[in-house]
DNA sequence: TTTGTCAATAGGACGA
DNA sequence: TCGTCCTATTGACAAA
């Protein structure tokens, strides 16, 4: 816990979230250059500001808000605790950070999106590697089949490569006539236990 | 000038 | 109907 200063320790952050490591996307590392944003960007807008926005009027050009390091840090801390906020938490965080609740909401939405993107990229990498290893394994097995085909003449047990079968449960390759000849590699996540197989 | 980052917006889906 | 979420997109800004 302890993601907020003492005076905000009454914040009820109880939403459970699947375990997530701290963010790789924090602003900290991206060069101190952009540093602090101007105060007027961070202040809680007055009701006139809201009205100005909602009424459109002459629609002033959108200014880019940059969160301060401290604001980012606190938001990251909160996000590490909970990936979503209830209205009370949002309100409290907004007050504490001198931002509008809507800005807190938007930050969490964007943060969740970035998390998901990161996760998807990692899964993509994993699948790429898996594909690579399966391709390699496939080539190896093809070579093995060719070798077996070459050996078939004179062998009483192996009459043709097409007589090779693979047990769908244990993934052992066997001839229709005899004992297992080779064990296929399986994805790292899967562990083979002899009890799974009837062989 | 180009590129990357990120706050903000739009709009649709969903549950209470 | 309202509040919240997600996704796609926009636009400001800083760094290369």
UniProtKB/TrEMBL annotation:
Chief subcellular location: nucleus
Record keywords, A-Z: DNA-binding, Homeobox, Nucleus, Transcription, Transcription regulation
Pfam families cross-referenced by the UniProt entry: HALZ, Homeodomain
Keyword hit for Hydrolase: no
Domain Homeobox intervals: 58-118
Region (Disordered): 20-67
GO MF annotation list: DNA-binding transcription factor activity, RNA polymerase II-specific; sequence-specific DNA binding
Keyword tRNA processing attributed: no
GO CC annotations on file: nucleus
Cellular localisation: Nucleus
Listed CDD domains: homeodomain (cd00086)
Record-annotated DNA-binding residue ranges: 60-119
Family in the record: Belongs to the HD-ZIP homeobox family. Class II subfamily.
UniProt name for this protein: Homeobox domain-containing protein
Organism annotation: Microthlaspi erraticum
């Amino acid at each position: 816990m302890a993601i907020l200063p003492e005076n905000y320790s009454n914040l009820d952050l109880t939403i459970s979230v699947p375990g997530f490591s701290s963010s790789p996307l924090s602003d900290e590392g991206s060069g101190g250059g952009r540093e602090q944003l101007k105060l007027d960007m961070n202040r809680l807008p007055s009701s006139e500001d809201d009205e100005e926005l909602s009424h459109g009027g002459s629609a002033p050009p959108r200014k880019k808000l940059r969160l301060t390091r401290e604001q980012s840090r606190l938001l990251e801390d909160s996000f590490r605790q909970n990936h979503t906020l209830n209205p009370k938490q949002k309100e409290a965080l907004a007050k504490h950070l001198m931002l509008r609740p809507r800005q807190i909401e938007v930050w969490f939405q964007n943060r969740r999106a970035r998390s998901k993107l990161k996760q998807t990229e990692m899964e993509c990498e994993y699948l790429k590697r898996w594909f690579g290893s399966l391709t390699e394994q496939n080539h190896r097995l093809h070579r093995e089949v060719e070798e077996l085909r070459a050996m078939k003449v004179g062998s009483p047990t192996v009459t043709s490569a097409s007589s090779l079968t693979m047990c769908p449960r244990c993934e052992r390759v066997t001839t229709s006539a005899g004992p297992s000849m080779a064990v296929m590699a399986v994805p790292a996540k899967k562990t083979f236990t002899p009890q799974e197989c009837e062989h």
